[in-house]
């Protein structure tokens, strides 16, 4: 079976279930008594419709990008620098890897992960990590491999001088995806030609430079929405401070607008040192907020560590504009951020850390959705890997992580944060994490990075169809 069949089958399965429902409903009025009993002749009869198992698919972010071709020319063309390492997991028999083709604007060589269907629809998961050092592109980047969707919030990026932010739009389906980019900055909504009606061909990726729509803005948020084919969107940001490399990272999609957001893993390391020198204003750690509604939001930011320490920061976020909340004088460590707001918001965090070679690296950390009781993931190899858990529920959780025959259980109290080292390049099965939010962080000589652990993909289940 080809790797692209799964996406089509998933659409067909849902469409088939709907079609069956229509047919059953149309004929069931006259057949109700036949399915009922003599004692209950008026009781509607029903039938259980079981969807056909479908392949599972997720798309990884791909490799680091530079705006030039292989010869260093053509600044409209994105080309890869090095290659990312991808780790995969599945509840099925195997994970097939393939590539999406680049468009005329280039591509990051994103990996399409496919777990072929068996008796049931499997789960598939993965992540990528890359340490890169090439000219002014230096740093570490990590990202989750994500489900195709019609809506993604990318909280991050900048178009100030020396900052390059590239939105990657990956379409793993067999139909065209028509994408609209709603871009917001510190002054409001960006109005620019070309932000709507972006066509991404089937099984391809398109790279869109943010500077084509907004210039000299230090704080951006992008809402990616698509019709037709579904999209996996990431953002890559590269920083050059005058002539000094300032880092590289990937922005994964964050949680949808909500009055409560959790950023489960944020690395603070040498923040004060990273702000020394010229052109370092954006090296300060911040939490970035955006209110997509029409009313101001009063926001409380809870900051906690695994050792029980914590504090709160209060802020106000105006509607329709991007707000950066500065985080000063925090000691080095791995933190979780919990945002509580009077209005739905999206949130992300940016920090900067010195590297062993005398440069610095930036890290973007996305908000995450709560996990279910059972979830799988895989952590790509990198330096200083830890998994961070945040328990926003009212009950304590005993979370078990299994890898092969190895098993470890960690207690996460209600409202608390916990962190633990995990194996890389191996499948991890997480159980007992209902309602818990998780993220992976990296901290090493080459830089900092992180990504959210994704919940299990929602799959079609048997449904009872009534007339």
How would you describe this protein?
There is one protein chain. This protein has 467 residues and is mainly beta. The protein has one domain (56-452). Helices cover 7% and strands 49% of the residues. It has two helices and 35 strands. Strands 20, 21, 22, 23, 24, 25 and 26 form a seven-stranded antiparallel β-sheet that branches. A five-stranded mixed β-sheet has the order 7-16-12-18-19, with no helix packed on it. Strands 11, 13, 14, 15 and 17 form a five-stranded antiparallel β-sheet that branches. Residues 1-38 have low confidence and may be disordered. InterPro entries: DUF5719 (IPR043777), TAT_signal (IPR006311).
Show the helix and strand layout.
Elements lengths: L4 H31 L11 E3 L6 E4 L4 E4 L10 E4 L3 E6 L5 E4 L1 E2 L8 E5 L8 E11 L2 E8 L6 E5 L7 E9 L5 E9 L2 E2 L8 E3 L3 E6 L11 E8 L3 E10 L2 E8 L6 E11 L2 H4 L11 E5 L6 E9 L4 E8 L4 E5 L6 E22 L5 E7 L7 E5 L7 E5 L6 E7 L2 E7 L4 E4 L6 E5 L5 E8 L2 E6 L10 E3 L2
Parallel strand pairs: 7-16
Antiparallel strand pairs: 1-35, 2-8, 3-4, 5-9, 6-8, 9-10, 11-17, 12-16, 12-18, 13-14, 13-15, 13-17, 18-19, 20-25, 21-24, 21-25, 22-23, 22-25, 25-26, 27-32, 28-31, 28-33, 29-30, 29-32, 33-34
């Amino acid at each position: 079976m080809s790797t692209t069949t799964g996406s089509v089958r998933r659409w067909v399965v849902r469409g088939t279930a709907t079609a069956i429902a229509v047919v059953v409903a149309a004929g069931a009025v006259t057949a109700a008594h036949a399915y009922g009993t003599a004692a209950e002749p008026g009781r509607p009869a029903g039938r259980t419709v079981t969807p056909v198992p479908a392949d599972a698919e997720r798309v990884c972010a791909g490799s680091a990008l530079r705006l030039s071709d292989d010869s260093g020319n053509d600044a409209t063309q994105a080309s890869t620098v090095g290659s990312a390492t991808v780790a995969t997991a599945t509840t099925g028999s195997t994970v097939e890897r393939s590539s999406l083709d680049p468009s005329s604007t280039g591509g990051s060589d994103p990996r399409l992960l496919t777990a072929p269907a068996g008796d049931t629809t499997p789960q598939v998961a993965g992540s990528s990590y890359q340490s890169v050092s090439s000219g002014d592109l230096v740093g570490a980047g990590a990202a989750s491999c994500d489900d195709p969707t019609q809506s993604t919030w990318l909280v991050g990026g900048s178009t100030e001088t020396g900052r390059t932010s590239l939105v990657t739009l990956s379409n793993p389906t067999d139909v065209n995806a028509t994408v609209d980019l709603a871009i917001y900055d510190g002054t409001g909504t960006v109005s620019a030609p070309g932000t709507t009606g972006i066509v991404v061909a089937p099984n391809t990726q398109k790279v869109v430079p943010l500077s084509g729509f907004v210039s000299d803005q230090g704080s951006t948020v992008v809402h990616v929405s698509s019709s037709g084919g579904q999209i996996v969107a990431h953002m890559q940001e590269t920083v050059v401070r005058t002539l000094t490399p300032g880092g590289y990272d990937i922005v994964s999609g964050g949680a949808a607008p909500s009055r409560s957001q959790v950023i489960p893993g944020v690395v603070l390391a040498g923040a004060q040192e990273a702000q020394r020198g010229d052109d370092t204003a954006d090296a300060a750690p911040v939490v970035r907020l955006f209110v997509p509604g029409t009313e101001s939001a009063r926001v409380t930011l809870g900051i906690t560590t695994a050792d029980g320490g914590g504090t709160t920061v209060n802020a106000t976020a105006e509607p329709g504009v991007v707000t950066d909340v500065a985080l000063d004088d925090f000691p080095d460590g791995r933190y979780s951020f919990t945002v509580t707001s009077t209005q739905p918001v999206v949130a992300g965090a940016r920090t900067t850390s010195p590297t062993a070679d005398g440069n610095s690296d930036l890290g973007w950390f996305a908000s995450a959705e709560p996990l279910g009781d059972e979830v799988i993931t895989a952590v790509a190899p990198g330096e200083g890997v830890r998994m961070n858990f945040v328990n926003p529920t009212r009950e304590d959780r005993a979370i078990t992580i299994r890898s092969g025959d190895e098993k470890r259980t960690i207690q996460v109290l209600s409202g608390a944060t916990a962190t633990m080292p995990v194996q890389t390049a191996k499948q991890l099965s997480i159980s007992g994490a209902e309602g818990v939010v998780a993220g992976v962080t990296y901290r090493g000589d080459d830089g900092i990075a992180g990504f959210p652990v994704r919940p299990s993909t929602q799959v079609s289940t048997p449904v009872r169809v009534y007339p």
